[in-house]
Amino acid sequence: MFDNLDTVPELLKNFQFQTGEKHKFLGDNYRLMVEESYDTGVIIDNYNMVLSVQDMNSAKQKEFVLDMWYREQARDVFVDAMSTAIVKAAPYQVSFPELKIYRLEDRWGSCSPKSKRVILNLELIKTPKECIEYIALHEMLHFRFPNHSLSFYGALGTLMSDWKEREDMLNRKYRLL
Ligand SMILES: [Zn+2]
Asked: Which positions fall inside the YgjP-like metallopeptidase domain (predicted)?
């Protein structure tokens, strides 16, 4: 293994939220820089992820502020990916879904045709946009094809010819538990 660090699932890393620690965002590694400030938040500055908190000694506060920032970013990026997927999958008469974002340990997303709901894993925000777009389209197609049937993969291949490479990247570089 060439890059052992990258193969450890993010969910298994025991983050300390200290300056110098590596955190992922949209497929890139950023160097955490913790700063003390009355206004809390996260700013991306080149390859630094600047985390501002009121109490630098509180790991809980740092974890919370970073988590909220990931959730905000996920909301924006996932809504874009879902919008694209809805347009792409339109020929298959898919439903218009409700989007939920949860942190899941064992899957990137799920689709419930009955409740017209798509769940995307918050952890996806750490992976490249191409991977997020792939999962969004994959889940949308489950409205029409509930199982991983040949028809499902036929539609997927028609709408996204390189879906397999995107899936391989997720499995290789961004494993869940
Ligand atoms: Zn599936």
From this structure: 14-172
Task: Tell how far the Cα of 104 is from the centroid of ligand 1, in angstroms.
Answer: 15
Total domains, the chain: 1
Structure tokens at 141: 């197609």
Residue-number span of the structural domain to which 75 is assigned: 4-173
Tokens of 107: 């899957």
CA–centroid distance, 160 to ligand 1, in Å, is 15
Separation of CA 67 and ligand 1 centre (Å): 26
- Model-level pTM greater than 0.90? yes
Task: Say how many Å lie between the first and final Cα of the chain, rounded.
Answer: 19
- Distance (Å) from CA 111 to ligand 1 centroid: 8
Q: Classify each residue of 152-171 as buried b or exposed e, where b means 16 or more C-beta atoms within 10 Å of its C-beta.
A: beebbeebbeebeebbebbe
Segment 143-155, tens digit of pLDDT: 999 999 999 999 9
Q: What is the whole-number distance in angstroms between the Cα of residue 117 and the centre of ligand 1?
A: 14
Q: How far apart are CA 130 and CA 33, in angstroms?
A: 27
We report the CATH number of the domain holding residue 68 as 3.30.2010.10
108: CA distance to ligand 1 center in Å?
A: 9
Distances (CA, A) of 86 to 13, 66, 110: 34, 30, 15
